[in-house]
Design goal:
The complex is a heterodimer of chains A (about 300) and B (about 400). Chain A is α/β, with parallel strands linked by helices. Chain A has a single domain, classed as HUPs (Rossmann fold, 3-Layer(aba) Sandwich), CATH 3.40.50. Helix content of chain A is about 30%, strand content about 25%. Chain B folds into two domains: about 15-255, HUPs (Rossmann fold, 3-Layer(aba) Sandwich), CATH 3.40.50.620; about 275-410, TPP-binding domain (Rossmann fold), CATH 3.40.50. Chain B has a seven-stranded parallel sheet, sandwiched between helices. Classes of the chains: A alpha/beta (about 300), B alpha/beta (about 400). Strand 12 (about 250-260) of chain A pairs antiparallel with strand 10 (about 200-205) of chain B, so a sheet runs across the interface.
Chain lengths: ~300, ~400
């Protein structure tokens, strides 16, 4: 009996490009948003790579969705190049603007249910967190609203298509303790977030052949990415205006201020980096500290 | 303060105990029965906030620690000594290791349980719906747990907080108050440093008072950055209420299974080295060459190499695999990475964003190498070498090597 095809959904975000040459900072150290380009965020790219892994290894159908203004379709195009996605979804409506993570998750929940010709997804993948918002809340909140168990910080995973289950490894950083690698098993459907260190590997000959074929397909698809693009507004998603955008957001930004400088806790001594004699005193101090300190 | 304190609430109820949202619940994380440091830090801050709250508003509202596991009863007294008025614990073999699904369910059961609320404070009435405030840690576990718990409780959440204030605020908001000035009492102001480390955003979780979209949003909750708040000194004489909670667990709740759990030692040893040399975006002018200088400098001091968060995002185009191996999340010092406290910490080309400082401020002696004498780091270091790394590092490395040679000869 043929196994049921695997449907994958990815949620991504268009973010400021923090790479050198593209990012621009104001003199006070804050991001100059007007001058900074936007790209598919690096964590979104990791999530997209995880979907590509499913495509190559399990011949999965992949749909990628993002909530944002029309310009966010650039993130979808970049994600298609990475993943050879079959569907690109843009959830875009003026009433979605200003949403916090809960109201964003509401839109994404509705979006995921429309992915893959309305079949939804057996696995939904998100990034670890966005580079600009950095809350890391939208993924797990979307998972909860979908009723999918959430598995975070995934560094490696396999799908058992016959038993419809996932076997995943996750990386846990415990502050003040050791690190932990955990192996998890769960039935599909699930929602996973790709750890920033996630990297797929393709080992067998057939996987490598599939990899080459998919890379080729991805390039030609992305040239006509509009063909794969579906745009959903609030009505098309069937969203309740009370639960999306600003009205659906429990939280508001009350104020933004510069962080005042903390009271200096140390007494700083300045030295001139061009003065060799002063640098030699610094060298002496460093070696003195180093040799006097007990071995840890 | 006593229960007869006049109530400052403007609603029709006269007793503070009638309010549907009460107490500050703190979700405790532990590793095999030992609380992770941030748990005690959160309790410390909760204690300070609620001491003020108890004086200003009502003495009925408590700091409540919530702890799940398969053998966590022994933790309860310690959590009380660390600031909790009450501890709610749930023991079950299936709670031994965190799974998001099961933990979310049980924490929500506890948060909405009227009997638990009544055990915490007898004045919690039938009206009790949910906690007023809720704290989680902003680590790999708490970040996800806070998100799913708030999705279930349908309330608002701010992440990565490093300052908290409770106050009465006059708010005018297009949606929340339909443009009318409205008083929100006992509001938790949640301060969050943004990704740059230079801006502070204050997030509020507010009920919609606008009649057309009226909704109550409680608890007001946040995840708290590890390492920013001080725990209170343990007081042995502190007393409190310990409440056992019997969790309702269905077959479905157990469908995510932890098959194995292995402790791994990081390949990067920040613990046992005396000196850590970290670099940041200051290498940008010529990343490859500057990194070579940094590496030679670190080698001369037998130091481990750390990085600031932006570097882990690999902002430079380079094919240098060796350099790329030094631009990984495992090397990040700060709230998104490691917390370190070496004998000497040397920051090269790092501006000193608050997230980075939180990861190294307990270091013994701090040296900064930076051409900008106004960099935020100047207030967090002992020695500031003003200069470009291209000029300073080669000279300093040679000077150290020379002195090392002398020391070795003497030995």
């Amino acid at each position: 009996m043929p196994v049921r095809p695997l449907n994958v959904g990815v949620i991504v975000k268009l973010e400021p490009d923090f790479s050198e040459g593209n990012v621009s900072y104001n003199p006070d150290g804050t991001l100059n948003r007007a001058e900074t380009k936007n790209i598919l965020g690096p964590h979104s790219a990791a999530a997209t790579l995880a979907a590509f892994y499913c495509k190559v290894k399990y011949d999965a159908r992949v749909a990628i969705g993002t909530m944002g203004p029309p310009i966010a379709n650039q993130a979808l195009k970049q994600a298609q190049i990475i993943s050879n996605a079959d569907e690109l979804h843009l959830y875009s409506d003026r009433i979605f603007a200003g949403a916090d993570t809960l109201a964003t998750a509401e839109v994404l929940r509705l979006g995921v249910s429309r992915m893959n010709n309305g079949l939804g997804a057996d696995i939904v993948i998100s990034g670890h967190r966005a580079s600009d918002g950095e809350t890391g809340q939208t993924g797990p909140q979307t998972a909860w609203k979908l009723g999918y168990p959430f598995i975070g910080n995934v560094i490696d995973f396999q799908i058992d298509q016959e038993n419809r289950s996932i076997h995943a490894k996750r990386f846990i950083l415990l502050y003040g303790f050791y690190d932990v690698i955990e192996e998890i098993q769960a039935p599909l459907p699930v929602f996973i977030s790709a750890d920033p260190s996630y990297k797929p590997s393709f080992d067998t000959v057939s996987e490598r052949l599939s990899l080459a074929r998919n890379l080729n397909e991805a390039r030609s698809k992305a040239e006509n990415f509009e063909k794969y693009l579906q745009v959903y507004n609030s009505e098309a998603l069937g969203a309740d205006p009370r639960f999306v955008g600003l009205p659906g957001s429990p939280t508001i930004v009350y104020k933004v201020e510069k962080i005042p400088k903390a009271k200096a806790k140390r007494r700083v001594e300045f030295i001139d980096g061009n003065d060799t004699a002063q640098l030699d005193m610094a060298a002496e101090k460093l070696l003195q500290l180093m040799t006097e300190a007990p071995i840890k | 303060m006593s229960e007869s304190t006049p109530n400052l609430e403007s609603n029709s109820d006269n007793l503070a105990g009638i309010e549907p949202y009460q107490h500050l619940y703190v979700v405790i994380e532990h590793e095999e029965g030992i609380p992770v440091p941030v748990s005690l830090e959160m309790l410390g801050e909760a204690r300070r906030l609620m001491d003020d709250f108890n004086t200003k508003y009502s003495s009925n509202e408590k700091v409540v620690a919530v702890v799940l596991g398969d053998n966590v009863r022994h933790l309860c007294e310690d959590l009380i000594k660390s600031g909790a008025d009450a501890v709610v614990y749930a023991n079950n073999p299936s709670l031994r290791y965190y799974t998001n699904l099961l933990y979310t369910k049980i924490i929500c059961q506890i948060a909405e349980d009227k009997n638990v609320a009544r055990s915490i404070s007898p004045l919690s009435s039938e009206n009790f719906k949910k906690p007023r405030y809720m704290f989680f840690s902003a680590d790999n576990t708490g970040r996800h747990l806070s998100s799913t718990v708030m999705a279930q409780l349908e309330s608002g959440l701010a992440s990565d907080i490093n300052k908290l204030v409770i106050s009465d605020l006059e708010i005018r908001h297009e949606h929340k108050t339909k443009g009318q000035v409205t008083k929100y009492e006992k509001t938790l102001e949640m301060y969050r440093p943004d990704f740059s480390g230079f801006l502070w955003t204050t997030i509020l979780c507010l009920d919609n008072r606008n009649p057309s979209i009226a909704r109550e949003y409680h608890p007001q909750s946040c995840s708290i950055i590890p390492g920013v708040f001080e725990p209170i000194a343990k007081e042995d004489e502190r007393t409190g209420t310990i409440i056992e909670f019997e969790p309702q667990i269905s077959h479905e709740d157990l469908r995510v299974k932890v098959l194995s759990r292995n402790i791994i030692k990081s390949t990067i040893d920040f613990e046992s080295c005396k000196i850590i040399v970290s670099y940041g975006r200051g290498i940008r002018d010529s990343p490859e060459e500057n990194f070579k200088l940094i590496e030679q400098f670190a080698k001369s001091l037998n130091a481990e190499i750390g990085i600031s968060l932006p570097i882990s995002k690999r902002p430079y185009q380079t094919k240098d695999q060796h350099l790329l191996s030094y631009m990984i999340p495992e090397r990040v010092i700060g709230t998104s990475g490691r917390k370190v406290s070496p004998v000497v910490y040397i920051a090269i080309g790092i501006s000193g964003a608050i997230q980075h400082l939180a990861g190294m401020k307990e270091s013994g002696f701090v040296v900064v190498i930076n051409p900008d004498a106004d960099a935020a780091f100047r207030d967090e270091c002992d020695l500031f070498i003003k200069g470009r790394m291209e000029q300073v590092l080669p000279v300093l490395t040679e000077l150290i090597k020379k002195r090392m040679l002398t020391i070795e000869k003497r030995a």
